[in-house]
């Protein structure tokens, strides 16, 4: 049983190569330090990314990491330990960036030939979970933005290739996924690609024990940034913020809101290589398209290759997901505060280490207005020091996650042309 598999040579159907590929990664090591993540996942990531690099085009890869990430017995009362989840994402995006640097693969969105656009998705799953034989899973979302393996199989497809780890937990996950995804896509045999696994660790098979209580989630979450040439640092920030959303039931009068302030073009005129800064509309559109990979849940998957339905007005782009239970809004900001001091009804603010002081300043201004303060959550930084044994790779890694350096590289290429 599983997905229909054909030995027929690949066809030339238009759009096939534009589909993303999938890498299924089994349970992360416990504890999920960056050193252990590298030992467990680096061989699989390196093999997968090397194969994509050989294709020579602009590649897209979704990395699904199966782990018992959610707490709670009932579907509508799920919660997540946010600090542990974002730390796992930070370690994974760091590892991806290091491997891409070593392979000389660009990691920004719209990177052109020789680039890979990676999206990391945490999928709630444990090895003890059983699914009814022969049942066709449907879309069953919960009160978080994380989905379980059955819903992932039903909503995320079709794939250009599916990479899976050649290990006992990797093969077990792969076989379970195939059963759940049966009938969604007919795959050619050469689209199913086994890759080597890393060192076997004490895999997390139960919800992680933590001294940090699960995060209940918030109706309105916000953050800000430039999001120029969307790269792994941006993706980490956006994904971590989305994990804080408390998603209401379908039919609720008020969706949860994810408000993203994106710096206006006027404020970026003095940036280095400012002539290569992407226009605000491009940056906003790329943010929503990236989030659609995390938030969209439809049994059609992306069969029709249609982009998310974005309502575009000057300086205000909006999209809805999961039957209008999640609202994403990108607004143009002309100062360091944006909507945090013009919209009272907000709950949580997500910052990076670089913008920590901005979070304090926001709450000071809200206090002056007599408004309630925002809960501030800080996302870990991407740091290759713990996992790279090549000094040059660390330097290249830093370049690949800097919008300024990406603009510099584009300026240099333009001069050469």
Automatic annotation (TrEMBL):
- Name of the protein: Cytidyltransferase-like domain-containing protein
> Which GO molecular function entries does the Swiss-Prot or TrEMBL record give?
dephospho-CoA kinase activity
Q: Which residues cross the membrane?
A: none
Q: Give the species this sequence originates from.
A: Cercophora newfieldiana
Identify the domain of life: Eukaryota
Record-linked InterPro entries? Rossmann-like_a/b/a_fold
Q: What is one GO biological process annotated to this record? A: coenzyme A biosynthetic process
